[in-house]
Amino acid sequence: METEAAEHDSDGMETPSTSSHADLRVKLLERSSSFTDHYDRRRDHLETTLDTLTKAAVGVRQMHQETKKLEKVRGLCGAVGGAVTGAGIGAVTGAIGGAFGAVIGAAGCKVLDDIGAVSAVGGLVGSVIGGGAGGVVAGAVGGAFFCSVEAAGGLLHSVVGHVVITVGGVVGGAVGGIFGGEVGTAGGAVGGAFGAFCGTGVAVAAVGSVVGQFNLSVKTKESNMDIKEANIKRIGEHFHETIKPLMKELKAITKISGTLHNMSPSATMQGVARQSMNALAAATILTETFADTEALKVEAAKIQQLARRCKDTAEEFEKMRAELDKLLASLR
User: Fold this and answer.
1) Which residue numbers in the chain have pLDDT < 70?
2) CA distance linking residue 168 with residue 227, whole number of Å
């Protein structure tokens, strides 16, 4: 007589359709005992993973907050520091440049017998005032702009520098002309342009070095975040390998308990079947989350989500352990 070959599932277990009620109870007993043994050995690791992720979420949140503060201070330092430094240096160098410009302009007019002593003095005063004014305005604008760009990590363009120098010359010439006539206009324009050049240059050099320290601090924190991300990925890989045997047993328990409940309904078997599905679903979601590269980005919200899912899995496994204790007591 021909014998019917038994069907097997992917775990090497005979399918419920080919097993008797007694055989299934034995298999469920074996699988339940195996799950509890595996879980008892892995419970500490699950708790450690949860603790690590919770602490990582707190640490990442703190690092993000510190980085944002650094970026705000860096931007403020660039804008305000650049403006103040540029204005100060621009005023001094612009006045000095204006004086030299007035001397050259007055000398040129003297050669042409086109200026008197009083006009020369007035032109000198106007040039100094104009040069200082142009240096203040253009130095402040140039210093604030270039230092802000550098703080934001942008590129400094020479075209903007030419515009700043031009602004310094125009403002210096206009103000110098008011107080010193033609000589004041010429000297003020020279002084304003020179003040703009010096003010902006010194601001970029001085404030830029301070901004560079902030940039270094931000990069260091970003590097630490990369390290944390790599650690979390390693935790995920280890956790996935650790939980594989538990998921295998859960799949088998789900199939067997569901079949036994259909054959002979009972509250205990129904509880095992329902809880095994819940635990398997939680574990599956968690392992899929660990496998998702985007989910492992070092962001406090995503790490908190990982921690919550790890906690959910731990709770579902604890409930599963309790249901199996009831089952094992009834089967034995």
Assistant:
1) 1-19, 105-122, 152-158, 229, 236, 293-300, 331-332
2) 48
pLDDT in tens, 136-151: 888 888 888 878 777 7
Length of the chain: 332
Residues 6+ apart with CB under 8 A from 119: 109, 181, 183
At a CB cut-off of 8 Å and minimum separation 6, what does 33 contact?
328
Asked if residues 248 and 287 have their Cβ atoms less than 8 Å apart, the reply is no
C-alpha distances in Å from residue 125, one per residue of 75, 103, 118, 144, 227 = 37, 11, 11, 28, 62
Single pTM value for the model: 0.55
Contact in structure between 221 and 63 (CB atoms under 8 Å): yes
User: Of the candidates 190, 188, 193, which has an alpha carbon nearest to the alpha carbon of residue 174?
Assistant: 188
User: pLDDT tens-digit profile of 232-260?
Assistant: 777 767 777 778 888 999 999 999 988 88
Q: How far apart are CA 50 and CA 38, in angstroms?
A: 18
How far from each other are the two terminal CA atoms of the chain, in whole angstroms? 37
Distance CA 95, CA 176 (A): 11
DSSP state of 113: T
